[in-house]
């Protein structure tokens, strides 16, 4: 086998490989000997089929299998011997001429092909020890816990039918038909819809127009779907709802005591408050984690500049761009609505793709040098969490991941990333800054809006 480098430009490599016909024929003969003891043909005893007959029947298909094995073996061995790491799977350019390809499959002609691939870049890690990180920390106050407990009481309140007009906080049972331009639209009707006035769960303006309604009353509500409404065919549209009020119920004020807390599986009101505080603090902790991780990634991005494998960047860009265009199509919006053009948006999202690839390589290098490991138990826990997201389809999801190494790797990757981030944070210079809950959440909303 002859291996010749024909291109080494930046991260791009091209290798010409020639496999002699004699080697192909030797491999074919060995494969046919294996088949001799496996195939059953009429007129021949098992294991007694002449090799020449097998060659006529199975020669080309067996050689095609051999060629595929050679491609895989050669790619792995060549890259390994050159001390390189391929960024993606190599591409192969095989003979296109039918007669030439036919001769190769018959073992009469050398197999000559080219293998192209990109290598992962070599780079020095920047000095990330001592990176300065500002960590905003918010503590949950007693008043905030009280407010959350009161909200839970309102959301879980029992209701009793009442006479008179519907007021804020009441639950109104209605039948309704939604219309756009006078025509009913799909999904816009219900015979027994329940609306709690003031809950904010319906389209803006819907609940408010039920204040003062009585049982048996008919009303026409005028509303507009939000511009960012999930259903593209309804987003931004003006609509009417023909409503018939069937029942008006008032909330029964709960007594916030130990007995009430037992409704939620907790032995006392104090235990409920503790649980509520832990949940709220955990949510704020997740926000804080997101903020310091974002700062860290920004710092690492600033510290590193090196050539990126074009194919990796292109693949990442296509993933990002596909999601962007899908979201726009779903919402019925255009790039003009977003205050940009398609070309400008592509340029921006390509930079995002480059950043993701660069940071991925940097985090991988840090993890490798720090010997960061992801255990099988951690992957298994991630798989269990993933399976729980698909109730009723547990077996199908489990089988999919177990039979698909790439899918299983997608569970391992975020675990590895978080562990590398944790490692770097142990070396960073972190300064805690106490903020209010509102400030912490508002900062996060502002960052999302900017992104």
TrEMBL record:
GO terms for cellular component: cytoplasm
SUPFAM superfamilies in the record: FKBP-like, Triger factor/SurA peptide-binding domain-like, Trigger factor ribosome-binding domain
Source superkingdom: Bacteria
Cellular localization per UniProt: Cytoplasm
Enzyme type, top EC level: isomerase
Pfam families: FKBP_C, Trigger_C, Trigger_N
Signal peptide as annotated in the record: none
Alphabetical list of PROSITE patterns matching this protein: FKBP_PPIASE
The UniProt record lists the keyword Membrane: no
Gene Ontology biological process: 'de novo' cotranslational protein folding; cell division; protein transport; protein unfolding
Gene Ontology molecular functions: peptidyl-prolyl cis-trans isomerase activity; protein folding chaperone; ribosome binding
Listed EC numbers: 5.2.1.8
Keyword terms of this UniProt record: Cell cycle, Cell division, Chaperone, Cytoplasm, Isomerase, Rotamase
Domain annotation PPIase FKBP-type: ranges: 169-248
Recorded family membership: Belongs to the FKBP-type PPIase family. Tig subfamily.
Function text: Involved in protein export. Acts as a chaperone by maintaining the newly synthesized protein in an open conformation. Functions as a peptidyl-prolyl cis-trans isomerase.
NCBIfam families: tig
Protein name: Trigger factor
Record organism: Kaistia soli DSM 19436
Name of the gene this protein is made from: tig
